[in-house]
Write the structure tokens for this entry.
Amino acid sequence: MKRLFSVLLLTTFLVALCAPAGVFADQALADHPDCYVTDMADILSDDEEQQLNSELKALSDELNFDIVVVTTHDLEGKTAAEYCDDFFDYTGYGRDDVFSGICFLRYITPDGSDYMVWITTTGLGMIYFNDSDIDDQIDFIADYIIDGEYYKAFSSFAKNAANHVKDYNKKNPDEIAQYEDWKKTNGPDQDGFTRTEDYLDWKYEQQAYKEHMRYKPAWIVAAVIIGFIVGGSATASMKKQLISVSAATNAAGYVKKDSFKLTSRSDTFLYKNVSAVPIPQTSSSGGGSSHTSSHHSSSGRSHGGGGRRI
């Protein structure tokens, strides 16, 4: 009897811990929860939900970057993007001073007539995951979603997202330091938010300027060459107007009529020269944009994101 009571008490505690705020968009921002999986659509077994929560919590703690999964039958009159943004913000997720994290939403009605997958990013998540990266994350687990293997889908998403963050930090060691330096002089706005989208705008401007300066010498050389061509053409045209006798184009005028007769002719092959030029290939990490689209949620925070109907 005591064991049964203990099991019931533990189950009640876990349900209370992971229970979402039904009207979270109308509430104040909550403290950070310990539950990283909220399965309101009930598409995971209890064991799968507990196992997945352990995986997500371990990865989130390791990276100091929240990785969250939520499922629902009801978007409460919102778009998938609005719902996912508000769930992440008002449930209290997000690490560090810019609430860094990524949230995966699976929306599907009980009869399967409507469905959606959406990923939202916040804080450093907007730097780690551009639009193309989000498409890649969805592509990576799309087959699991289609087959209804949700535990595999969500677990694979979490691990792939975590690996992406690790790879990004490894390949871009100065990125986070640059972001921290930017925040020192571009701190919270009047609403108290440090908007990552402003940093990204600044970053893209810097990249565009560098590209401009990189090609500036080529533009100068091109301008000089074009100047020579145009100037040479004009000079040649004027020169032609000053010459009263035109140059002969052949020797017919110097040959006495009927004094030359061709008795035989032949074609002799000397050699051939073949040049091979490779066709430039277009590289792509997923066909999407390397830009991060951004917007504000109802809480005022900046978010990136993307999704599709699956």
Q: What stands out?
A: The chain is about 45% helix and 10% strand. The radius of gyration is 33 Å. Residues 196-241 form the longest helix (46 residues). The CA atoms of residues 75 and 83 lie 6 Å apart.
